[in-house]
Amino acid sequence: MLPATRNTLCLLAHRIGQLTEQIQELERRLVLLAERHAPQLLTVMRIGPGTAVTLLITMGATRNVCTVRRPSPRCAGSAA
Known about the structure:
This protein is mainly α. It has helices at about 1-35, 40, 50-65, 75. About 75% of the residues lie in helices and about 0% in strands.
């Protein structure tokens, strides 16, 4: 049983290493996106690259919705 446990733990450690590298690469890409499209968001305290990119995506989605002739209160920012 010991060799099987050791093998399983080695496989898990290897997978954790792979996932850690993927996370770091995705975080690097988020930083690049935020720096390219809205670097001012990264200077606001407590806003990281993930939040900045989420805000950019949300703003883009809202912009498409708010192109109607008579914008709703939500588009005008007066409704939750």
